[in-house]
Amino acid sequence: MNQMPASIEAEDEQLTVYKDRFFQSFRRPRTDAARAVVKDITNQIENYEKRFGLRKRKRKKADQAIFEATIAAVICDAIHRYCEDPNGRIAVTRSKTILGRKSRYRPAALGNTLPTLLDQLCAPEMGFIATAKGRRSEIMTEDGLIKAVGRRTTIQAGAALIRRIEENHLWFTDLGTSETEEIIILKDKNSQWEKGNWLEYEDTAETNRFREELRSINEWLAQAEIEFYHFSDETVDPAARRLRRVFNNRSFKQGGRLYGGFWMNLKEDVRRKDISIDGERVVELDYGQMVIRQLYGRVGVRPPQGDLYDIRPREPHRGSAGLSGTSMES
Q1: Is residue 232 part of a domain?
Q2: Which residues, 6+ apart, have CB-to-CB distance to 290 below 8 Å?
Q3: How far apart, in Å, are the Cα atoms of 174 and each of 72, 79, 83, 242, 268?
Q4: Which of 63, 121, 150, 302 has the fewest CB atoms within 10 Å, counting from its CB?
Q5: Mind listing the pLDDT tens digit for each residue in 125-150?
Q6: Residue range of the domain that includes 52
Q7: Among the residues of 224-307, which ranges form H helices?
Q8: Domain ends where: 145, 179, 213?
Q9: Could you give the dihedral angle defined by the CA atoms of residues 48, 54, 57 and 59, in that order, rounded to the nearest 10 degrees?
Q10: Which tens digits make up the pLDDT trace of 181-229?
């Protein structure tokens, strides 16, 4: 199996000394207001190209689709980041080596045309995106090794985009995610959350079934009346409902946990206090030793009383020679 990093720039992850969020290239407009902003900016970029003679001929249909998807992804992610933190930045790569790679985990929008479009969106005549070029340097660590440090190139909403955000009152709920995003992920090892290399794989009847099951769940979540009331100080995107299923250790038999829901990283008291479903407060049920009880139920046996995870012998074992009658624990 081929592998790719969990993010497009994980190869040089050690270079980052800042907490800039990575570019979310599957971001798309979800409401008419957001779509109108994206369409207006797309038209302005096309007019900019004509004015300065940057294109000799009209784009082919496929290239036009990539062009529009790339602008939509950049603009929508910049809006999203502005809603998270007006001063927040997004880390991007301009490396053609990285952008030229093909993967089931990456959209066509994350291709070699990205740097050119970023330059146009950042142009003084446009001002939709502000950019800060990355800087790298080398330092010597305490153990005498040379390590590269610095900051990647970052982008954020420019003045022209901020004006449109505020005029249209855009918020998280105006943004969505492309249906083309891969939601079945295979990792090379079992690590916390989604960290680790994501592996390429060939689809099978099993992976197709996993994907269709999860799409069905995501469709329900997208339509569900889930509200987040912001009683706490948490900055939360209540539209972040698309779940991903992550498998570990190069096997679709290991792992399979779900990630991606906005509620998953909230503190328990915030989940209970700030979330409602169909206008009703939520409750959280905690079943003790649930997995073991399910296994007992599967074989039709009533579980014993007490701690089912306690596998110590229930009765003392007879000791070896010379220790007859001594209780021993395994």
Answers
A1: yes
A2: none
A3: 13, 10, 11, 15, 27
A4: 302
A5: 999 999 998 876 666 676 767 766 66
A6: 1-179
A7: 268-274, 290-298
A8: 179
A9: -70
A10: 999 999 988 665 556 789 999 999 999 999 999 999 999 999 999 999 8
